[in-house]
Amino acid sequence: MAAVTGLTRGGKTWEAQFIEAIDKETCLGCGRCYKVCGRDVLSLQALNDDGEIVDEDDDDDEVERKVMSILNADNCIGCGACSRICPKNCQSFAN
Fold it and tell me: In this predicted structure, what is the pLDDT of residue 2?
């Protein structure tokens, strides 16, 4: 994909950074990125002790922790709000 660039209101060049991945090892599952994204890009996933995705509705005893995942990557507009709010900087991006 070619880089998407534009201009800010002040005339400075801005380049979109589209979310590519979230590091599940560093993600706290705090939901800050989810709350700041208005494009329905992200979703929380439940993980078991082995780090495998589990259905949180099946058995709450299986859920060890929750982490953020990319649900709808095509909805990302490249604004970078998720990375600015993340306390662990666990997202990776591409232009």
Answer: 74
pLDDT tens digits, residue range 26-54? 999 999 999 999 999 999 999 988 888 88
User: Taking the C-alpha atoms of 53, 57, 62 and 64 in order, what is their torsion angle to the nearest 10 degrees?
Assistant: 70
Residues 69/43, Cβ–Cβ less than 8 Å: yes
CATH fold for domain 28-94: Alpha-Beta Plaits (3.30.70)
Q: What is the amino acid identity at position 64?
A: E
Contacts (Cβ under 8 Å, ≥6 apart) of 26: 88, 89, 90
Rounded to whole angstroms, how far apart are CA atoms 84 and 66?
20
